[in-house]
Amino acid sequence: DAKTTQPNSMESNEEEPVHLPCNHSTxxxxxxxxxxxxxxxQGPEYVIHGLTSNVNNRMASLAIAEDRKSSTLILHRATLRxxxxxxxxxxxxxxxxxxxxxxxxxxA
Amino acid sequence: xxxxxxNPRYLITVTGKxxxxxxxxxxxxxxxxxxxxxxxxxxxxxxxxxxxxxxxxGDVPEGYKVSRKEKRNFPLILESPSPNQxxxxxxxxxxxxxxxxxxxxxxxxSIL
Lengths: 108, 112
Description:
The complex is a heterodimer.
Chain A (H helix, E strand, L loop, with lengths): L8 E5 L4 E6 L8 E7 L6 E6 L4 E2 L4 E4 L5 E6 L8 E8 L10 E6 L1
Parallel strand pairs in A: 1-9
Antiparallel strand pairs in A: 2-7, 3-4, 3-8, 5-6, 6-7, 8-9
Chain B lengths: L3 E4 L2 E4 L5 E7 L5 E8 L3 E10 L2 E4 L7 E2 L9 E3 L8 E8 L7 E2 L3 E5 L1
Parallel strand pairs in B: 2-11
Antiparallel strand pairs in B: 1-3, 3-8, 4-5, 4-9, 5-6, 7-8, 9-10, 9-11
């Protein structure tokens, strides 16, 4: 299974952007790149996904490298409610692997 | 409201006593999956189902069974639970391969 690598933690100030990197050097051509986040005591929540092109939605933006070996989740203006563990995963062949994710801390 | 519903939310039981955790989705999704989450190990996939009567093993299937007799339901069965199956379990569904997954609120199992 293709795996992803993320930093263990990142800190941000409220109202500032957050850029969360993810490396997936063994990605295959049909793997979708998904991002989820998990708040304490809750189930994972879908954030955004993409295949080849950059994507935007109301929660975030996803920038995908041209070679697809890395991607970056962008939270444009962090709020205290964005403090969570963010997971970057590859989803294609029905099997999913969640890594340890990146713990995002937002300072008021 | 679109949702994935798991029951029970919490359960304390004893070794060897068969139990079933139910999962139901109201979105007519084809794909459903079970995960367990343990401290330091993240979410690991137990079993998944691509459609009715089609299931396959994830990364940690030992000690678990599943069935998919109807599209909306995907129960997780522990025939003879053991303490190492104490964990937080999540069920998820998506419309089809590669699409966003919707997760349930989780089931916390404690097996003594």
